[in-house]
């Protein structure tokens, strides 16, 4: 089975610019989540998508937005980039059955974003 | 809110020695707990998880963890460490669970160094 893949692997942007990060979910997974991992910190939950709708959001401003496509791939968009947005952005996918069930999250290797 | 604390930022052990990484959780009911490992430049790999039942859970790569409600702990152990175990280890608790998924609150991580 194909794992979670993210692109690009590295990206350098200037403060104020906009960025789009992409994620392909693991085959058979229908839920995708995004996490931000600052240097030396644990990952922080940004938001989750299920059936193309946002299904939960962490403590991130609206300039962080996302999309999930019918094939369950996903994008993370960040507008008006700030220096503190420099981080590793991780995508994770899982399969939700529609009944409460904890299925493990499968993470990609991340996109390293540097804002200068 | 549910959270986890990893008291040790760095731990150094000799190859072949035993290992214990500490994790304390804050949650009133029975939490859903996870341990993930992250090698440099990589995403997160699930080592093991605890949902309910037997309080000693076995994971991959020879790791195990024990859930202790009385101590609000979920410590990770390995009887004999290999040089390839050097990595960052994260404890996490599931939050915001629903029929369509959940988010993870991660600790800040423990960096493991293995010496010859």
Walk me through the structure.
The complex is a heterodimer of chains A (116) and B (116). Chain A has strands at 5-7, 10-13, 19-24, 31-37, 44-50, 53-57, 64-68, 74-78, 87-94, 106-107, 111-115. Chain A has 116 residues and is mainly β. Chain A is globular and about 45 Å long. Chain B has strands at 3-5, 10-14, 19-21, 24-26, 33-38, 44-50, 56-58, 64-68, 73-78, 87-98, 101-106, 110-115. The N and C termini of chain B lie far apart (41 Å). Chain B is an all-beta fold and 116 residues long. Classes of the chains: A mainly beta (116), B mainly beta (116). At the A-B interface, strand 4, strand 5, strand 9 and strand 10 of A face strand 6, strand 10 and strand 11 of B.
- Taken from the alpha-carbon principal axes, the silhouette of chain A is globular
Q: Between the first and last Cα atoms of chain B, what is the distance in angstroms?
A: 41 Å
User: In percent, how much strand structure appears in the residues of chain A?
Assistant: over 45%
The proportion of residues forming helix of chain A, as a percent range, comes to under 10%
> Please, what is the average pLDDT of chain A?
92
Question: How many whole angstroms does the radius of gyration of chain B measure?
Answer: 14 Å
Quaternary structure of the protein: heterodimer
Topology, number of strands of chain A: 11
What is the 3D form of chain B? globular
What is the radius of gyration of chain A computed over CA atoms, rounded to a whole number of angstroms?
A: 14 Å
Number of strands of chain B: 12
Low-confidence stretches of chain A: none
Alpha plus pi helix count of chain A: 0
The main pleated sheet of chain B reads as: 6 strands, mixed
Element string of chain B (H = helix, E = strand): EEEEEEEEEEEE
Into which percent range does the helicity of residues of chain B fall?
A: under 10%
């Amino acid at each position: 089975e194909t794992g979670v893949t993210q692109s690009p692997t590295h990206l350098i942007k200037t403060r104020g610019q906009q960025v789009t990060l992409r994620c392909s979910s693991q085959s058979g997974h229908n839920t995708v989540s995004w996490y931000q991992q600052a240097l030396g910190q644990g990952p922080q939950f940004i938001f989750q998508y299920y059936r193309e709708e946002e299904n939960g959001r962490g403590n991130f401003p609206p300039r962080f937005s996302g999309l999930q496509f019918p094939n369950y791939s996903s994008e993370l968009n960040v507008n008006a980039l700030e220096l503190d947005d420099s981080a590793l952005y991780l995508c994770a996918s899982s399969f939700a059955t529609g009944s409460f069930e904890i299925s493990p999250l499968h993470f990609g290797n991340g996109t390293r974003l540097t804002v200068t | 809110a549910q959270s986890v604390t990893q008291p040790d930022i760095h731990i150094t052990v000799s190859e072949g020695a035993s290992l214990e990484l500490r994790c304390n959780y804050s949650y009133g009911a029975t939490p859903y707990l996870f341990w993930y490992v992250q090698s440099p430049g990589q995403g997160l790999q699930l080592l093991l998880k605890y949902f309910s039942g037997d309080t000693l859970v076995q994971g991959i790569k020879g790791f195990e963890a024990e859930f202790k409600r009385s101590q609000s702990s979920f410590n990770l152990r390995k009887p004999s460490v290999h040089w390839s175990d050097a990595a960052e280890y994260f404890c996490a608790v599931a939050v915001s669970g629903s029929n369509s998924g959940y988010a993870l609150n991660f600790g800040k991580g423990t960096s493991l160094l293995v010496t010859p």
